[in-house]
Amino acid sequence: MVGDIKLAALSDTDDTDVVGTELVTNGTFDTDTSWTKGAGWAIASGVATFSPTNFNSTIQQVVTGLVAGKTYTYSLTVTTTSSTSIRYGGSS
After folding, report:
1. For residues 87 and 50, what is the distance between their CA atoms, to the nearest angstrom?
2. 35, 46 in Cβ contact below 8 A?
3. By the 8 A CB rule, do 51 and 67 touch?
4. pLDDT for 18-49, tens place per residue?
């Protein structure tokens, strides 16, 4: 019936664009490598922790292999025990 649509979906079975290469080295924090850590940061047992000595301290990694015009995704999990603000992002 026209006007009684419950679901309209469009799907593509080609998943070649879904699977990609991991560009971050040691993104699971298994070891204390590949990350540049500012004051207060530590990596151990799969977790990066921050004990504030300077609230503007960062943990970062230079990622290579990015191509202009392509779309990239990243995800992270943050657990906090205080009301400290958290900023994350990238730069060009």
Report:
1. 13
2. no
3. no
4. 567 788 889 899 988 899 999 989 999 899 98
Partner residues linked to 50 by β-bridges: 41
Q: Tokens 């151990």 — which residue?
A: 44
**Which string of DSSP letters, residue by residue, matches 46-77?**
TEEEE--SSTT--EE-------TT--------
- What's the CA gap between 23 and 40, in Å, rounded? 25
Rounded CA separation 36/56 (Å): 14
* Calpha distance 46→66 (Å, rounded): 25
Residue 88 is which amino acid?
Y
Q: Is the pTM above the cut of 0.70?
A: no
Q: Is residue 37 packed enough to be buried (19+ CB in 10 Å), middle (13-18) or exposed (0-12)?
A: middle
Residues 6+ apart with CB under 8 A from 50: 40, 41, 42, 57, 59
Q: Which of 92, 88, 80 is nearest to 59 (CA)?
A: 88
Cβ atoms 39, 53 nearer than 8 A:
yes
